[in-house]
């Protein structure tokens, strides 16, 4: 079919303005390049698909002209004149048409994708996205589409590119902010820890083993709120604020643990200083595999291990330890309901183990034991 030259505006934006007329110019011998038509559809029977894709491919020529690519304008005019004159009649001429489109497409591939991404980025930038995240996303998407997966120039690909840009930008921003927040969190924790160690120096050295680990300070207020602050700055902790909250917290922390331990005992033995209350620190026991169990008897021992208690480890009551202590207290003729750790600690070493074999060295007398050594 011959199409009048006047039916197409050569001075317009391009053939894409009159796709219907352009479609009439395409002979049946035209062989679409697989790079532009990856679906393998029969476009002679489904011209709507071809019209859609050709309108998008025509954009390549227009962008080539507007971008100032050498020869793009002349090739475009030659391409239109061939169609207008209806001179493409055989397979050889249709291959030339494909070569034009592929050549221009290759030249514009990177610039097109970059311009598309930059266009979408400008939209996201106006909707509270950060330039640093969009710049990082640009590099990722260019690498993906140029070197791993060929980009298909159609509406669906444009939308997919915009979606990937949005998702990748958001993921990068989340990761960046998390790293930034984690760095600020570590700096704030160090600041709290420094204040805590400074406060420790004001206390008697004998109380230092009984103080909680610094992680417990991180969880109490106002230090927890300070560490979890969403500010972009580290911030400061006033000295008055630290002093007014740290000392009361340490007192209450110790009292809470003592109350919890007393609640686990029978009413007759609620006094944690009674000698019959024998415990084992599960946390220290876990670190002492193959060694004798670390026995805790008396409030002094318990306080020095309160810092070991957490969601995983707690104190374990020792039934065997109580049985041994009951036997010893009965042997000494003391009242098991009232005898305390201090009562037994003040007694001299006067206990002997009849089961120990000393026959290997008769010149050495059997050694007297303190009650804790039994």
What's the overall average pLDDT, rounded? 66
Q: Largest sheet, if any?
A: 3 strands, antiparallel
* Estimated share of beta-strand residues: under 5%
Q: Please report the distance between the alpha carbons of the first and last residues.
A: 114 Å
The shape is elongated
Strand order of the largest sheet: 2-1-3
List the helices and strands in order: HHHHHHHHHEHEHEHH
- The number of helical runs is 13
Total individual domains: 3
Backbone CA Rg: 42 Å
Number of strands: 3
Secondary-structure-based class equals: mainly alpha
Helix content: 40-55%
Give the uncertain stretches in residue-range form. Answer: 1-55, 84-93
Q: TL;DR?
A:
This protein has helices spanning 19-25, 47-66, 72-84, 91-125, 131-147, 155-200, 214-218, 223-227, 239-263, 282-287, 299-303, 319-331, 341-345; strands at residues 278-281, 295-297, 315-317.
Tell me what you see in this structure.
With 374 residues, the protein is mostly helical. It folds into 3 domains: 5-153, no CATH class; 177-262, no CATH class; 267-349, no CATH class. Helices cover 54% and strands 3% of the residues. The chain has 13 helices and 3 strands. It has helices at residues 19-25, 47-66, 72-84, 91-125, 131-147, 155-200, 214-218, 223-227, 239-263, 282-287, 299-303, 319-331, 341-345, and strands at 278-281, 295-297, 315-317. The chain has a 3-stranded antiparallel β-sheet. The longest helix is centred in the middle third of the chain and has 46 residues, at 155-200.
């Amino acid at each position: 079919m011959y199409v009048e030259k006047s039916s197409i505006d050569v001075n317009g934006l391009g053939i894409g303005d009159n796709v219907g007329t352009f479609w009439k110019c395409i002979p049946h011998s035209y062989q679409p390049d697989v790079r532009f038509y990856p679906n393998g559809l029969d476009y002679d029977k489904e011209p709507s698909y071809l019209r859609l894709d050709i309108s998008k491919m025509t954009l390549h020529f227009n962008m080539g002209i507007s971008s100032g690519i050498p020869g793009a304008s002349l090739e475009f005019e030659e391409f239109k004149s061939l169609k207008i004159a209806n001179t493409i009649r055989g397979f050889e001429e249709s291959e030339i048409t494909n070569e034009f489109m592929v050549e221009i497409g290759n030249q514009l591939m990177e610039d097109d994708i970059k311009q598309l991404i930059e266009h979408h980025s400008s939209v996201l930038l106006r909707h509270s996205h950060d330039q640093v995240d969009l710049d990082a996303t640009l590099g990722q998407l260019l690498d993906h589409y140029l070197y791993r997966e060929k980009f298909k120039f159609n509406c669906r690909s444009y939308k997919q590119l915009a979606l990937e840009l949005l998702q990748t930008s958001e993921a990068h921003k989340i990761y960046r902010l998390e790293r930034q927040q984690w760095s600020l969190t570590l700096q704030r924790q160090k600041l709290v820890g420094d204040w805590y160690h400074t406060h420790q120096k004001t206390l008697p050295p004998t109380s230092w083993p009984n103080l909680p680990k610094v992680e417990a300070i991180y969880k109490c207020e106002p230090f927890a709120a300070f560490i979890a602050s969403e500010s972009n700055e580290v911030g400061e902790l006033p000295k008055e604020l630290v002093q007014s909250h740290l000392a009361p917290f340490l007192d209450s922390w110790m009292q809470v643990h003592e109350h919890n331990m007393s609640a686990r005992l029978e009413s007759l033995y609620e006094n944690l200083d009674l000698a019959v209350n024998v415990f084992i620190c599960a946390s220290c026991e876990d670190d002492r595999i193959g060694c004798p169990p670390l026995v805790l008897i008396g409030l002094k021992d318990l306080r020095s291990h309160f810092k070991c208690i957490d969601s995983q480890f707690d104190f374990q009551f020792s039934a065997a330890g109580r049985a041994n202590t009951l036997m010893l207290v009965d042997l000494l003729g003391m009242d098991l309901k009232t005898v305390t750790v201090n009562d037994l600690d003040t007694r001299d070493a006067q206990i002997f183990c009849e089961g120990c074999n000393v026959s290997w060295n008769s010149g050495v007398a059997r050694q007297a034991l303190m009650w804790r050594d039994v």
